[in-house]
């Protein structure tokens, strides 16, 4: 790795020494000529690899830490621009990216939703939406679909297979049986008395 850095450094040194030689001969290299030579060097596989290695080193990354305000402004400008919206619409069509993106945002979304559920203004808006006749009609139509019924059946089956659910169900059945026995005893006592 050090050899590559040395090669890159040597290349830059040769470039500048070549420029210095041209200066001493009386002809001055133009800015555009020097820029073109540097760009050409950086476009080579060795140049790209050297830059990549530099950027992956921990101390170099620390040096390139950007100003948070600048990053924030750049992201806002990118997201709110027309090109940014088109880009995100396009990239979110990729199922793998959409899945990864959703997973990374899930925790924050859950926090936000929990906070909203406690907000009285949001609760009132949600109730208004649910009371809307169009919303009610759409929900009823959804519940009539085959896919919804299959999904509901799957969820119910998973719940019935769950040991936690079975334990709760057994507790409820025992409680009901005890209440029935108690009411039968009271009924028998009332009829004897």
Automatic annotation (TrEMBL):
Coiled coil: none annotated. The keyword Transmembrane does not apply. InterPro entries: GerD_central. Residues 65-176 form the Spore germination GerD central core domain. Residues 1-22 form the signal peptide. Keywords: Lipoprotein, Signal. This is Spore germination lipoprotein GerD. It comes from Alkalicoccobacillus gibsonii. The gene is gerD.
């Amino acid at each position: 790795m050090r050899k590559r850095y040395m090669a890159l450094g040597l290349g830059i040194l040769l470039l500048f020494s070549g420029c210095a030689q041209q200066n001493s001969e009386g002809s001055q290299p133009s800015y555009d000529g020097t820029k073109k030579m540097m760009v050409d060097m950086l476009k080579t596989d060795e140049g790209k690899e050297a830059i990549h290695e530099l950027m992956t080193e921990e101390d170099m990354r620390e040096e390139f830490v950007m100003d948070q305000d600048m990053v924030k402004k750049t992201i806002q400008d990118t997201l709110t621009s027309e090109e940014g919206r088109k880009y995100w619409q396009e990239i979110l069509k990729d199922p793998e990216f959409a899945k990864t993106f959703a997973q990374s945002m899930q925790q924050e979304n859950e926090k936000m939703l929990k906070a909203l559920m406690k907000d009285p203004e949001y609760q009132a808006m949600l109730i208004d939406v649910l009371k809307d006749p169009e919303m009610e009609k759409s929900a009823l139509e959804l519940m009539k679909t085959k896919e919804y019924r299959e999904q509901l059946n799957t969820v119910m089956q998973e719940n019935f297979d769950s040991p936690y659910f079975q334990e709760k169900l057994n507790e409820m059945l025992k409680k009901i049986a005890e209440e029935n026995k108690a009411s039968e005893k009271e009924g028998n006592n009332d009829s004897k008395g």
